[in-house]
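Q: Hi! New to this. If I give you a protein sequence and the SMILES for pyridoxal-5'-phosphate, can you show me the bound structure?
A: Yes, paste them in.
Q: Okay, here:
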Amino acid sequence: MFSQRYKELTPYTPGEQPQNREYIKLNTNENPFPPSPKIKEFLDSADIEKLRLYPDPSSTRLRDAIGSYYGISPAHIFTGNGSDEVLSFCFYAFFDSAYGPVLFPEHTYSFYPVYCSYYDISYEKVPLRKDFSLSVDAYLAKDRYSGIIFPNPNAPTGILTDKQGIEKLMKNIPENIVVIIDEAYIDFGGKTVIPLTEKYHNLLVVQTFSKSRSLAGARIGFAVGNTELIKALMTVKDAFNSYPLDILSQSIGEIALADRDYFNMITARIIENREYTSLALKKRDWEVLPSTANFIFARKKGRAGKEIYRSLKEKGILVRHFDHPGIEDFIRITIGKKSDMDTLIEHAGG
Ligand SMILES: Cc1ncc(COP(=O)(O)O)c(C=O)c1O
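A: Thanks. Here is the predicted structure of the protein with pyridoxal-5'-phosphate bound:
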């Protein structure tokens, strides 16, 4: 009844989305602010009649909008149903065990090994430095691999690798190895390396509207890279689902990009709340890794991560805990509104 493939599948475990109780939700890196008010105006008067038709399969207008936002040609842009789908297509198109394993950080986005299992791709985890930052040299020391992927800033650490680090990597690896930089959290203080895709044709940058544009529910993700890479992603898409982005989401994405003032305001507030929370926890004897994301990764000496997670949950605050050796004492805290962060700090222990 079931395929062998299916029987061997290990799915990703998403953060809890409890429906039974009201929690302060600081566990899935969602944005605490609503999307741009211009999106509400659009939805209030949306032409429902249009839902009768299939959407534009290649999201032309949205790709044009992303292109003008970043000053690149739409031929260098691919859009998908959330960056998770875009990433999945990347694993399918660019990584192949026949040429070696794909490399990613020892502690990173836990969907990467899931895609590997799905597509039967071997992988190797590259250790982080002692301070949990990513070592480009550790990647350069490897001699056989079929690709490289990491989030920048990394998740769940929140630590950014600077542009010089990424350039050093690109300059020193073979041109036929695709490097994917997953910039899901780049808008919270980092600087995108999208401009480097013009110089390095094996570099692909993936972004999402879920975090900084507060649109996790609309599922809009995209990739930027050389036309050959983009063509490959289009081919994979058309072998799977020609219409990954629905009509409403394509328009919502365009509107979100155009409202720069709102975007600047909410990202600045999250950065401010992050710095405020980090300082308050440090004052209470926590170790907080330096974050450039909309979350922080923190631990408190003498307390197990799982225990902190449980005790906060009892108090109505959800955070994320990863039971992985080396980071088991940390909890990942999404940055919410200031009042939510105050409640967290109050229960964080002195
Ligand atoms: C590092 C990283 N990449 C990609 C994603 C996927 O985001 P989405 O599918 O909502 O675009 C996430 C989501 O949490 C993430 O943490």
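A: The first helix runs from residue 4 to 7. Let me know if you'd like me to explain how to read the tokens.
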